[in-house]
Amino acid sequence: MARNYVAKGGNAEGIGIHSDELAREFQKVIDELARFGQKIDAKELGKIQRRSLVVTRDAMKSNITDFKDENGRDSFDIYRRGGIYAEVTAQQLQNSIGIRKSRTRNSKLTSAYWVGPIVKGAFRDPDKGGWFAHFINYGGLVGGNKRNGGGVRYSGKNLGFADKAKARTMTQVVAYFTQQAKLYIEKTFNRSLS
């Protein structure tokens, strides 16, 4: 599920539904619609793609409840170099979830979007963005560094928040895109015949 994508800040681990996965599903629909013989506007299809991902974005946000630990603290501690580097909250992770446009080779012909935590500044500013989301989704270490003999795997309620949202909404995403893309193509086709 995780893919590497190039962001302005460099490479980052993609969490959630990435454009490669969506591109395969959406391409099936576009191939089916090619029988209309019209040039498909990538920008319009991109808008439909983006709208179809809203359900997944909302599901990811709702899968993040809180980070309460056994001591009642409501933050998730990130350890680095033997000490606590950052104390992040569920709200910070929720606020970082969004839908972004991916770079494509030819933006006039294709459009692609991904959904997941948006990384802003990575480790430079621990209070910004969802750079730590993979710890929560994949069960990163809590309480120290494995190399130094410390830490346990995260197993809280939020474990797999992105994977669960993807599994729960992928069918809806593809169905919405298919329906809206067909409506768009039929409308365009009918307009060109008039």
Notable traits:
194 residues, alpha+beta, two-stranded antiparallel sheet, 6 helices
Explain how this protein is built.
The chain is of the alpha+beta class and 194 residues long. The protein has one domain (3-193). The protein has helices at 19-33, 42-52, 54-62, 90-96, 133-138, 161-193, and strands spanning 3-7, 10-14, 76-80, 83-88, 97-101, 113-117, 141-142, 152-153. Helix 1 packs parallel to helix 6 (161-193), helix 2 (42-52) runs antiparallel to helix 6 (161-193) and helix 3 (54-62) runs antiparallel to helix 6. The longest helix is centred in the last third of the chain and has 33 residues, at 161-193. 27% of the residues are buried.
How many helices? The count is 6
Structural class: alpha+beta
Order of helices and strands: EEHHHEEHEEHEEH
Number of strands: 8
Shape: elongated
- The average pLDDT is 77
Strand order, sheet with most strands: 1-2
| Gyration radius over CA | 20 Å
Distance linking N and C termini = 45 Å
> Sheet with the most strands?
2 strands, antiparallel
Task: Give unreliable regions as ranges.
Answer: 1-13
Summarize the structure.
With 194 residues, this protein is α+β, with helices and mostly antiparallel strands. 42% of the residues lie in helices and 18% in strands.
